[in-house]
Amino acid sequence: MSHSMIPLDLAGSIVTMAVIAVDLVAVTQPLSGSFARRLVIAAVGGGWVGLAVFLGASGRLAFSPNLPAPLIGVLFAVPLLTVGVLALTSEKVRAALLGIPPQLLVGLNAMRILGVLFLLDFIAGSLSGPFPFFAGLGDMITGALAIPLALSIARSKEPSVRTIAGWNAFGTLDLVVAVGLGITSAAGSPLQLIHAGVGSQAMQYLPLSLVPTVLVPFYLLTHAIVAAQLRVRSRAVHTRLTASSAQ
């Protein structure tokens, strides 16, 4: 590699942190409440990213038989469980999440087109096996389709529910498959089933560790919120049709 070229890890770090920053700022802006409340939410998100960076940089996210629960799995699950519990128990939180514009939630997924970095890591030898192909290509397709879909939602008052639901299901499935392949092809994982060279071991260290600890939970939450919005919309349509037929 030429010394004039930016190393792939450095490029990945810059791109990943930029995507995280954009996601964090974009999703906190439309939330209801005062500026101070939104600032607190952004600070909590920033603190979580800082924790993920520290643990990834220190190598503490690597699978170890001495840990009863892998830290990388804990960091993956905690944001999902926290937001899920808050949404189920707090009407204000639920309303705030449902109030995020769907075109924003879909549009932020456009940055998943940068999943091409997984393929570059495969070429560089940092990743191997089926994981980088499924994760990279799935993200690239989801991101590419998100661009026209977000524009369509923004321009239309009644976008196709079936189209949105189809994209949302594909994007969710992509993340679920990627997580499954990442776990089953990671050296040291108690669930390792795929032994193909280095596998997904690099996902346990910076900069790729920010994907399962920050980006994947974030994008899974965007899909969950979109699904909830579609469900609310379908119920509203059903209620209107029922009321209309009763007249």
List keywords for this structure.
247 residues, mainly alpha, 9 helices, 70% helix, disordered N terminus
Q: What is the arithmetic mean of pLDDT?
A: 89
Helix coverage percent of residues? Answer: over 70%
Cα shape: globular
Annotation field: number of helices = 9
Description:
α5 packs antiparallel against α7. The protein starts with 7 loop residues before the first helix and ends with a helix. Helices cover 70% and strands 0% of the residues. Mean pLDDT is 89; it is low at 1-5. By secondary structure, it is an all-alpha fold.
Walk me through the topology.
Layout: H1 8-28, H2 35-57, H3 71-89, H4 91-98, H5 102-108, H6 116-124, H7 131-155, H8 161-184, H9 210-246
In short:
This protein has helices at 8-28, 35-57, 71-89, 91-98, 102-108, 116-124, 131-155, 161-184, 210-246. With 247 residues, it is mainly α.
